[in-house]
Amino acid sequence: MILEEGYEFNFKVEKIIDLSDESYYILLSEFDKKYLLPTKYYDEYNIKIGNEIRCRIDKISCSGRVFLEPKSPIYSVGEKDFFTLIETKQKETRKTKDKYLVIKAISSKTKHAIVVNFSDCLKYSLGESYLCEIIKIKKAEMHLKLISKV
Fold first, then answer.
1. Edge-to-edge strands of the sheet including 8-19?
2. Rounded CA separation 144/67 (Å)
3. Which residues of 30-106 form beta strands (DSSP E)?
4. CA–CA gap between residue 80 and residue 147 (Å, rounded)
5. For 50, which DSSP code?
6. Could you give the CA distance from residue 76 to residue 56 in angstroms, rounded to a whole number?
7. What is the model's pLDDT at position 119?
8. How far apart are CA 112 and CA 137, in angstroms?
9. What are the strands, taking DSSP E only, across the chain?
């Protein structure tokens, strides 16, 4: 079986292990290969040992490391819901260390959402609710596009 980015496969959650200072799920693929998935991002997913989960191949690095993104039990890409903007936060890219701003948001279903591509943060009010579309899910964080103020 050849893995390609964007494809989805089933994985069985075998166990949780601790490596250094981080814990991981050990996932057994449907073609009998094991993969690691960090536990720290997926607290809202209710992943349990023995469960079967569906994961998308999010990225395959040049060294062959496979990054998986479990199918969210909360939202799907393209889905719309109401989110409250709670704070502006500065992040940086892993490779280049370039800094960028995001707006953290919450909904009635999740506390892990951000608005990344906002052009004029002054027109968005923290504490206000907006209708948003989920445009991407990465590390269990919903990436949002603001549609309109509620």
1. 34-38, 22-29, 8-19, 52-60, 66-70
2. 21
3. 34-38, 52-60, 66-70, 80-92, 99-106
4. 9
5. T
6. 12
7. 61
8. 10
9. 8-19, 22-29, 34-38, 52-60, 66-70, 80-92, 99-106, 113-115, 129-138, 141-149
List residues bridging with 136 in a β-sheet. 143
List per-block mean pLDDT (blocks of 10 residues) for the chain, which spans 150 residues.
Answer: 86 95 94 94 95 95 93 96 92 85 94 80 80 95 91
Q: Tokens for 141, please give them.
A: 């964080």
Return d(Cα 93, Cα 42) in angstroms, integer: 21
Task: Give the tokens for residue 129.
Answer: 């609710």
Token pair recorded at residue 38: 């960090």
Residue 136 main-chain phi, psi, to 5 deg = -165, 150
